[in-house]
Amino acid sequence: MRLLHTSDWHLGRSFHGVGMLDAQRAFVDQLVARVRELSVDVVLIAGDVYDRALPGVDVVDLLDDALVRLTGAGARVMLTSGNHDSAIRLGFASRLLEKGGVHLRTRLQELDAPVILPLGGAGTDPVLAIYGIPWLEPRLVAEQLGVDTASHFEVTRAATERIRADVAARAESRPVHSVVLAHTFASGGISSDSERDLSIGGVGAVPLDLFDGFSYTALGHLHGRQSLSTAVRYSGSPLAYSFSEAKHQKGGWLVDVDKSGVTAVEEVLWEAPRKLAVLRGTLDVLLESPEHAWAEQAYCQVTLTDAQRPAQAMERLRARFPDTLVLGFEPEGAPAGSGASYSSRLAKAEDDLAVCCGFLEHVRGGREPDATEQAALTEALENVRLQEASL
Questions:
Q1: Which of 82-91, 115-124, 229-238, 337-346 comes out lowest in average pLDDT?
Q2: CA neighbours within 13 Å on the CB side: how many for 115?
């Protein structure tokens, strides 16, 4: 039996304002091709199938197309819901879809309802049992799972205990090799910026030993592909969704299972439709240096280190790097990050005029308000103060 572990498709997501639906369609094309090429039996999707609880029609159509093509290529699909998904909506028509080879695990009552696949022809031969743990919001599921403390650790422990009990009951009649999908933050994983509202430093994390005894645990939630142990792995997202992922090699894991258990786990790589470039330097160097030629076709995050902010910096950068999406300023000698973001500059604004000027500079790509504009802003702010004083 051959499984392909993926997760965090985030269908419908944008990248700094750039729609990614075409790139996601290209990923689906690669995925279907690999399923055929590698004779994959089951495609695993460990949560965050969508990027929003209410995906657009074109996004739903893309998932529909992906599921039709994957099952048409001869693979079953097993997917769970993540924190970005609406479990109820994603799980709609699950019993009907099961007949077509698409297995949805989005509800608590399905924790101990595995997909059972034979690993031999005899009645006593081992079977493969694939379980799905959807995203567990502790405050919402603690009571249903019978735990007193609403924490990620407690609800995940309760879920895995329920699965272990089911494995033990099935193993009384024949050997069982278990695979578990879980959308969670397991300690030892490395987070990136595009996992929103993710607690780190041990808060909200679950220890790896909760997954002890399972043949393979297919994790989702973190976007970097990584191995936490030989049997516990994150596949990561198929595309980069933040510049912090610029150095990621996107891919998944190909898992082979036979009567003896998991026999091999190999990486499967996805080709990125666009490279990401994180550039830093003075404007003149960035515009003239031949070493940055490769970034002319990439999505770019640029940090300028000029002592003074150059006029029309974004316009000049985009003349060479048309897809510059993020621009920050950190003069040489200034503390790292001091000029990298609008929010950090806003926090240091001394008065209302500085706030307004900083906003205009930010939305115009680094062009500061001229004297005429500053005078108009000053007059407008004064009018607001007079109106407030008259109330």
A1: 337-346
A2: 26
Measure the CA–CA gap between 257 and 235, rounded to whole angstroms.
17
Gap between the Cα atoms of 142 and 299, Å rounded: 42
Nearest partner of 74 among 106, 39, 105, 104, judged by Cα: 39
How many Å apart are CA 242 and CA 13, to the nearest integer?
11
Buried b (16+ CB within 10 A) or exposed e, 261-285: bbeebeebebebeeebbbbebbbee
- Length of the chain equals 391
**Of 33, 52, 54, 45, whose CA–CA distance to 4 is shortest?**
45
Closest CA to 49 of 95, 98, 102, 113: 102
Residue 182 and residue 136 in contact, taking contact as beta carbons nearer than 8 Å: no
Asked whether the beta carbons of 11 and 55 are under 8 A apart, the reply is: yes
Q: Tokens for 126?
A: 């081992």
Please provide the DSSP assignment of 44-107 as one string: EEES--BSSSS--HHHHHHHHHHHHHHHHTT-EEEEE--TTS-HHHHTTTHHHHHTTTEEEE-S
The per-residue pLDDT for range 64-90, each reduced to its tens digit, is 999 999 999 999 999 999 999 999 999
Tell me the percentage of the chain whose pLDDT exceeds 70. Answer: 87
Contact 133, 179 (CB under 8 A): no
How do residues 315-336 score in pLDDT, each as one tens digit? 999 999 999 999 999 998 655 5
DSSP letter at 117 equals E
CA 97 and chain centroid, separation: 25
Round to whole Å and give the CA distance between 110 and 96: 15
On the CB side of 265, how many CA atoms lie within 13 Å of its CA? 20
**pLDDT computed for residue 388 by the predictor:** 52
Residue matched to tokens 């960035």 = 286
- How far apart are the C-alpha atoms of 98 and 73, rounded to whole Å? 16
3-state helix, strand, coil in the chain (%, to 5): 35, 25, 40
CA pair distance 360, 264, nearest whole angstrom? 55
Residue type, 360: L
**Residue that has been written with the tokens 């769970």 in this structure:** 80
Task: Report whether 286 contacts 327 (CB < 8 A).
Answer: no
